[in-house]
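Q: My collaborator sent me two sequences in one message, no labels, and asked for predicted structures for both. Can we handle them in order? The first one she listed is below.
A: Yes, handling them in the order given. First sequence, followed by its structure tokens:
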Amino acid sequence: MNLKTTIASLALCTAGIWAVAQNNIIEEVAWIIGDEPIYKSEIEQTYQDMQQDRTPITGDPYCVIPEQIAVERLFLHQADLDTVEVTESMVMQQVDAQMNYLIANLGSREKVEQYFRKPFYELREYYATNMRNRFRVNQVKQNLTKNVKITPAEVRRYFQELPDDSIPYVPLQVEVQIVTLNPVIPRQEIDDVKARLRDYADRVNRGEADFSTLAILYSEAPEAVRGGEIGFMGRGQLVPEYAAVAFNLNDPKKVSKIVETEYGFHIIQLIEKRGDRINTRHILLRPKVADKDLTDAINRLDSVRTDIVDNHKFTFEEAARYISQDKDTHNSNGIMVNSQTGTTRFEMSQLPQEIARAVGSMEEGEISAPFIMRDPQRDRERVAIVKLTRRIPAHQANLSDDYQLIKDMYEEAAKNKIIQDWLHGKIRDTYVRIEDGWRGCDFQYDGWIKTK
């Protein structure tokens, strides 16, 4: 940021008005930070976006938002100095995910445009700019804090110095192991599903039906309401079996062979390829599980439980390794890992509701009776037994039981202090002008308004 440029610019806007020469529009300037103005229209647009996204704002938005923009400008300026670059494919993957989310929730591209009152391409570019900025800001923060090293002694000292009212209260937690079985689906049911998909594919290939119409009418995928369109995805965002077929499609008028994945059976149609990303539509059908198949699976798992508990033929851990069909846990003795924390501990609300009900009244070491649970991702039922490995009662955090939690708290505090100190120094050393009407704020950071 160039101070001489800023002084020259100030000659044009002493009353807080900035002339945009390209289209002769007069813009009100709220702040100037370095040599960059923050326009009132920019603040208003951000405020509108935050309201649409239901982002909470603590305080007066006309104080909070310009300060947030100013802080971001400081980080982005540092990113320029450090020549921080982001991978465009990463940006576009995030943008595609965001746009797909909006379409899924609002119903169509047209409805997204109506809701945001912007053409779809403008909205994509808006999110792409925000995403690039976010990646660059995060990279600057990582660069600032990359040398933070936490030792056990520092964690102990941090905990000992914490005021009692700052020590977190840890709710009841449990550690759980699981064994699951998927009901056996009759061959005839699978053949019937494949026959239906072959019929749909033949009708599209002969030009007798539109793929998206068939998807709306028959597909069991969440994307059915959009004609089966899943949006642009990278290979790593798709299950391997789907990706292998989708990325080999070249003719948008033809339909793929039948593809089996963990979600069911698909046929796929190419919409468009863009470099290493692809947009496809698909029709998904899932073979149905009959009540008899579920009952048979329950009986099989009940026999497994009996062999563990009463006959001592093998252990729960061995059952998890050699019998369980839970792909996330069968290689780790059935131990469930909390995806939110990366640890083996779960609060009851973090467990699938069927498992929470099963372990709610169990004792440590006890194995549940078989029960039916729904896999929400794959929208199918399976049968499970669980073992309550450990129950940790609700308590105030302590070092012996909650070392990782306290370590994470200390590491976050140490990194936050480095960033805050850097920000205070940046604010002190950067030219900032806040126009009349925008000054009467209780800002989060000191030093914006310079005193002589």
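Q: And the one she listed second?
A: Here it is, processed independently of the first:
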Amino acid sequence: MYQISNFTDNDDVKILSERGAFQVVEYQRDLSVTPDSAITAYYSAQMNVRKRQLVCYLNRAHVTIQAGAMQWMLGNVSATTGIKGVGDFFGKAVRGKATGESAIKPEYTGDGILVLEPTYRHLILMDAADWGGAVVLDDGLFLACESTLQHKAVMRSNISSAVAGGEGLFNLSLMGSGVFCIESDCPREELIEITLQNDVLKVDGNYAIAWSKSLEFTVERSGKSLIGSAASGEGLVNVYRGSGKVLMMPTARMPNV
């Protein structure tokens, strides 16, 4: 038996969202400050620059997290690599190398509580069912998911243009049933959601953070010709074609904090 006090019941801690096995908490103020840092801490809180944490309740579902993200765990919790043999290890190593994600993502089982490291980025909970059971994430956004979701490396259909555009060739895809959490530079309230029905979305830059796996994702010239692209000043753009959803930020991605 255990009891937790002065955590989610602290009046300085606000529960932002809760879905599946996950709960997102936010610290309304940074109380661990010095006189030298007090002004920065105050204005950070006023501008929504706050620490956030992901709490995982393993009695609801087993979870898989990004390597190194665990801060503390309590109760009956066991950590495994999630590897089911040599072939599985090789596949995960290749996928990790291709997508830039950690090759081995630890899986936590049991019925206790797992709390991840605090971050100043926004933590967004999503359900794979809302994406037709298969969603693709931009590089470096994955934080955690229920272990019922499978991880796949998805390659772009247009390799040469991806290289020319300076984008990676692979992205991480989550497939199946379950809830997952991503880290975003923008809060959920600012993210733009676009639903395509046999249509095309072209984006100048990596503003899209998640999209349906059913969409064809390529990098193409913004115009029909090299001269047309040069005249428009846009050059290469990310293209999402078909039927599905795209979740997009209104601003460019910032360096990780």
